[in-house]
Amino acid sequence: KGKGKGQKGKRITLKTAKNSIRITFDGRRRLDLSKMGITTFPKCILKLDDVDELDLSRNMLKKIPDSIQRFQKLRWLDLHSNQLEELPEGIGMLQNLAYLNLSNNKLTTKNLPVELNLLKNLRTLNLGLNRLDNIPTTLGALKELKEVSLFDNFLTAIPTSVAKLPKLKKLNVKRNPFPDPTQEEEPVDSIKRTETLYLVQEKDLCCSCLKMCQDERDKLNKLKNTIASSSKKPNFPSLLTPNSTAKENQEQWR
């Protein structure tokens, strides 16, 4: 008494597990053990390995046993928001799995089993909010994938084999430390700008400099006059003002 003990979590009995089976709207049997405070995978649920869906999300699981492969009918597996640091090799044996959510865990690239590439029927894979710094190119073997989520990791690149999956419709890679796009060179300014301007009075200039300044000023004034004359409104002396004919016919045009 008085000694600190690790968190045990809630103990799941077979009876509790059976009472947690729900029927989905499309008639599938889902074993829902989410938000139960579970810290250790309950071995008793292996006796319910004929379920179609298994939800162990939002618990405190650190490990999934290799015996998960016994759920051969499993099409939907949700393990998000746990404390998983690794996955068992046996997960690759779930050949009917179409949906796998592993987001918000502590998975690293090193602890992703190669066997994930055996999930040939997988359509949705969520690996967001983990600690991945790389994505195995072997995931490109999952040709049925339609949605892949890799947000909030430490990725700096996405393998071409994954980015160009034939049926991929959605790829979420937000909030990863990807390198900045190739920085464009600063555009060359075609206008020559004077960085330093010195003001002097005419009397302080030598004859040649004074003449050069006067010539440039004359050119500028000539250019201004040309622009001003071209902007004047054209004059049509023969045009009636106001146009009485147009004025009389306005009601008809309307």
Automatic annotation (TrEMBL):
Q: Which residues form the Disease resistance R13L4/SHOC-2-like LRR domain?
A: 69-237
Q: What does this protein do?
A: May be involved in the regulation of spermatogenesis and sperm maturation.
What is the scientific name of the source organism? Crypturellus soui
Identify the SUPFAM superfamilies for this entry.
L domain-like
Keywords in alphabetical order: Cytoplasm, Leucine-rich repeat, Repeat
- Composition-biased stretches, type Polar residues, lie in 226-247
Where is this protein localized, as stated in its record?
A: Cytoplasm
The gene that this protein is the product of is: Lrrc18
Q: Which portions of the sequence form the region Disordered? A: 226-254
Q: What is this protein called?
A: Leucine-rich repeat-containing protein 18
Q: Which GO terms describe its cellular component?
A: cytoplasm
